[in-house]
Amino acid sequence: MKEIFFCLILLATLSPLSTAQEAHEHPSGVAATFDPDHDSMLGMHMDMPENSALPSPHAGSGTAWQPASVPAHEWMFMRGGWELMAHGAIFLDYNQQGGPRGAGKAESVNWGMLMEEHRLGPGTILFRQMFSAESLTSPHPGFPELFQTGETYHGQPLVDHQHPHNVFAELSLLCTVPLAEKVTWEFYGGPAAEPALGPVAYIHRASASELPMAPLSHHLQDSTHTSFGVITTGFGIDRVKLEASAFNGREPNEQRWSIQFAALDSWSARASVAPSRNWSAQYSIGRLQHPEAFDSDSQWRQTASAEYNRRLARGNWATCFTWGRVHKIAAGSKLNGYLLESTLNFRERNYAFTRLELVDKDELFPAAVHPAYRIGAYTLGGERDLGHEHAWQLGLGADVTFHSKPAALDAAYGDRPVSFQIFLRLRPGNDQKGHNH
Ligand SMILES: [Cu+2]
Fold it and tell me: What is the pLDDT of residue 294?
């Protein structure tokens, strides 16, 4: 299995080289040209007709579907038959978490992604590399976030902190092959990749585009977005997609720069539907083998989500509802997380956003038995673009988070902890030439 992955890495690394060679053979320059005859069913934005309702694989990670109308903040150009894309975001924040367990830190949440896509016979092949420098830009032990749990630091489970993301957050390839007029076969995988489990990871969700904080329900919903070893296959049938994955469900350890191979002994299955350009929804279920380093238990995970996105005359409105459930098999415990997120971009430069969560947390205290507490987190924020160019958008934003919790947690967390952050956000501007006009 390792050999296959090394080949995949090699392919991913070599793809820019082959790009350069192709450019020699077809010196077509870097102009963005669109050829309406190569279209494909799984929503390749490559040359898609403008009215296509199918989501683009460029608008997320893994193979999850986000509504087709989601705006693309990316740089894109064509070169020798390759469509090359780059997107990402850098947040510079001051983050103050309230109460006795809170902390205030300067930090940077950041990621960048490169994509290279080419025709492959009648289908397409897409290479994707996502990187994050958070292992250098997060404070220790992680980004302060009240009630957040998941992964480790210095051999201890992280509590009240969000883990930084891995240097190689995704290294993958995605092939799609049309089989019939409305049927496409999909093959996806890589050494760092996202199995068919969960909604589009929050980092890429349009509904969370201005919010650098991770959801408290991350580890009940979309935390498998970086799994070290994934193979997914599936079929797109008109506006429905059915997929299954075999993957390594162990969470990344604290060596953030490494790729931690292990057996692909977890699996998942997902059904997605994109009824119109503005809607997408999914249900997925997975069995994760030994996901947590300090808990030998395995778990079932179920998620269901719906995303709505709507273009406005001078902005965009994106909303997502997600439910996620973890069933720890040996312990017999069930944890639920509910999330509602919405981001309104209005009059071009302005944003209002919110995230409302209810989530069960059982790892807030080191203990032999883990009682679960129902935590609420209610975030409201606003942002304005100081720079709003075709190439760049620089925004200044702030948000505040209120919490609800059982009275049993008052001693540890204080009566009503309130957290806030203030941040600068830098990213590519709206891609006018791309798929999403
Ligand atoms: Cu994550």
Answer: 80
Residue 353: both structure tokens together: 């956003």
Q: How far is the CA of 308 from the centre of ligand 1 (A)?
A: 22
Q: If you measure from the C-alpha of residue 346 to the centroid of ligand 1, how many angstroms do you get, rounded to a whole number?
A: 28
Q: 287: which residues sit within 8 A by CB, 6+ positions away?
A: 249, 266, 267, 268, 298, 299, 300, 301
222 CA to centre of ligand 1 in angstroms: 7
Cα(274) to ligand 1 centroid in Å equals 24
Q: Are 145 and 160 in contact (CB under 8 A)?
A: yes
Fold of 2-28+38-43+50-428: Porin (2.40.160)
Domain boundaries, the chain: 2-28+38-43+50-428
> 223: CA distance to ligand 1 center in Å?
5
Q: DSSP character for 339?
A: E
Residue 350: half-sphere exposure toward Cβ, Cα within 13 Å: 5
Compute, in angstroms, the gap from residue 246 CA to the centroid of ligand 1: 19
Distance 165 CA to ligand 1 centre (A): 6
pTM: 0.86
For residue range 193-251, what is the model confidence (pLDDT) as tens digits? 999 999 999 999 999 999 999 999 999 999 999 999 999 999 999 999 999 999 999 99
For residue 196, the CA-to-ligand 1 centroid distance in Å is 15
Q: 201 CA distance to ligand 1 centroid (A)?
A: 8
Q: What is the pLDDT of residues 366-411, one digit of tens each?
A: 877 778 999 999 999 999 999 999 899 999 999 999 999 999 999 9
> Ligand 1 centre from 303 Cα, in Å?
16
Look at residue 432 in the predicted model and tell me its pLDDT. 53
Mean pLDDT of the 316-326 span: 98
> Residue 109 C-alpha to ligand 1 middle, in angstroms?
11
Q: Of 290, 241, 242, nearest to 264 (Cα)?
A: 290
Task: Answer yes or no: are the C-beta atoms of 152 and 161 closer than 8 Å.
Answer: no
